[in-house]
Each structure stands twice: as C-alpha cells, then as structure tokens.
C-alpha cells in the first residue's frame, strides 16, 4: 500500500516543478551566444583581377581579402602577406598609401611583400607613416610569380624572427628583412638626394621607373638592399 504524501512534501514538489519550469523559460528567452570567429594568424591581400599572381596557401588557414574597396571587418593578424604585381609607386594595383593602410589595419608584427620591388621606399615609407613598426620581408628586384617558399614555421612559430626567416626564394637570394624605422628611411633618402649623376648611375637598379639601390644590412639580412625612386632628369650631367 503506497504511503500517503504529506502536504509539506506536495508543496516542496510544486516549488521544484515551478523552478524547473522557470529555468527552462529563462533559457528559451536568452539570445543565442555563438563563439566569436578566431583571429587569423596570417592574412593575404591581393588584387581582385590578379588573384593568380598572389601566393596560394591551399593547406594552411589563411584569410584572404581583395584590396579593391577593402575595409577591415575588425580583425587583427600576426602576419600579413601582400601578393601580386607591382611597379613603384603602384603596388598590386593600388597607391602605396592605400596598401599600407590596409596592411596596418591588421596590426601585424610581420609583413611579407611578395611582389616585384617590394623593398622600395614608397611602400616602406607609407607603412612607417601609419605608425606600424613590423618586420618586413621584401625583394629589391623583380620577383617571379609565386616564387617565395613558406616553411611550416612561418605559420606556426610564435617568435617573430623565426617567422621572418621562414620565408625565402627558391633558390635562396638576398632579401630585405628589416624592421620599419622612419628615421632610417629619412637618412637613406637624404643620402640619395645628395648624390650626383655619376653615383646615381652606378647605383641604378631599374631604368623605367628609375630605382637606385642602397645597402640596408640587418642582423637577419646582412646583404639587405632598399630601392629609392629617382627622377630621370637627375641622371643628366650638367654642361
């Protein structure tokens, strides 16, 4: 024969049932909180019409954005890669200031300019003018399409200098690996501004547009070079 349920027990059971119902209702009316998308470690910026000239990162989690009309959706990234065709002062189809603003918006500590003549003052000056003080990896010469090789450490290493050294040409060829410094840029530009036609001609790297080379050695690239645009009339000797 079942034992009779006392009134206090019935009251307790009713309270528990009410609390359970209230908790269930509260959970239903709460907004669904989805986890925020993780911040990418590497971002690739490229020209929309020339995606084939930018590097492929098929097996790595890289976020990609076209430069045309770019607006940062609120992301930061440890590394930004710029990929495509460039002839200073235009880089991947955009003015240096536009490219620099897009790169700097991610607040990276490493920037790779996988583009021709990336180690040149227009883009480096524009990057420095944003306040960015990242390490830059760039070539002071015409870089073949998709010529850079990225080792696994480039995507996984926490150490900045390890990532800087984890990208290179195949076979290896001297590249600029340098931390942005506007004071150094000003000093180099001043040296070039003081040169005469003969010295400029000796340092000429490219004729159209005229780019002269200057040494910029660093701990990570003892043979580093930087290119500076020079007006063509400065190569003419005065009578």
Question: Can you tell me about this structure?
Answer:
It is a single chain. This protein has 7 helices and 14 strands. The protein is α/β, with parallel strands linked by helices and 239 residues long. The chain has a domain at 42-192. A 6-stranded mixed β-sheet has the order 2-1-3-7-8-11. It has a 3-stranded antiparallel β-sheet with strand order 4-5-6. Helix 2 crosses helix 3.
Query: Which oligomeric form is depicted?
Result: single chain
* Counted beta strands: 14
Question: Which percent bin holds the helix content?
Answer: 25-40%
Overall mean pLDDT score? 87
**Biggest sheet, strands in spatial order?**
2-1-3-7-8-11
N- and C-termini, Cα separation: 126 Å
Main sheet properties: 6 strands, mixed
The SSE string, one letter per element, is HEEEEEEHEHEEHHEEHHEEE
* Number of helices, where a helix is a run of at least 4 consecutive DSSP H or I residues: 7
Specify Rg, calculated over alpha carbons: 28 Å
Strand portion: 15-25%
**Stretches with pLDDT under 50, minimum 5 residues:** 25-37
Q: Report the principal-axis shape.
A: globular
Secondary structure class reads alpha/beta
List the helices and strands and how they pair.
Blueprint: H1 7-29, E1 42-46, E2 62-66, E3 79-83, E4 86-87, E5 90-91, E6 94-95, H2 96-104, E7 110-114, H3 121-129, E8 135-138, E9 148-150, H4 152-156, H5 160-165, E10 167-169, E11 176-179, H6 182-193, H7 197-202, E12 204-206, E13 211-215, E14 225-229
Parallel strand pairs: 1-2, 1-3, 3-7, 7-8
Antiparallel strand pairs: 4-5, 5-6, 8-11, 9-10, 12-13, 13-14
Helix pairs in contact: 2-3
């Amino acid at each position: 024969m079942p034992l009779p349920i006392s009134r206090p027990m019935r009251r307790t059971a009713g309270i528990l049932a009410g609390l359970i119902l209230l908790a269930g209702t509260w959970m239903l009316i709460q907004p669904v909180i989805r986890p925020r998308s993780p911040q990418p470690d590497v971002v690739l910026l490229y020209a929309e019409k020339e995606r084939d000239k930018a590097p492929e990162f098929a097996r790595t989690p890289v976020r990609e954005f076209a430069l045309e009309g770019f607006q940062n959706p609120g992301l930061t990234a440890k590394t930004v890669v710029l990929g495509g065709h460039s002839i200073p002062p235009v880089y991947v189809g955009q003015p240096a200031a536009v490219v620099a603003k897009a790169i700097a918006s991610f607040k990276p500590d490493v920037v790779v300019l996988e583009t021709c003549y990336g180690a040149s003052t227009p883009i480096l000056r524009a990057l420095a003018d944003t306040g960015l003080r990242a390490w830059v990896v760039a070539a002071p010469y015409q870089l073949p399409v998709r010529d850079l090789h990225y080792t696994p450490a480039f995507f996984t290493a926490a150490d900045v200098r390890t990532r800087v050294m984890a990208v290179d040409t195949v076979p290896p060829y001297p590249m600029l690996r340098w931390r942005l410094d506007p004071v150094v840029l000003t000093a180099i530009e001043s040296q070039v501004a003081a040169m005469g036609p003969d010295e400029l001609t000796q340092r000429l790297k490219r004729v159209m547009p005229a780019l002269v080379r200057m040494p910029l050695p660093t701990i990570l690239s003892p043979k580093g070079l930087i290119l500076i645009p020079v007006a063509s009339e400065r190569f003419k000797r005065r009578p």
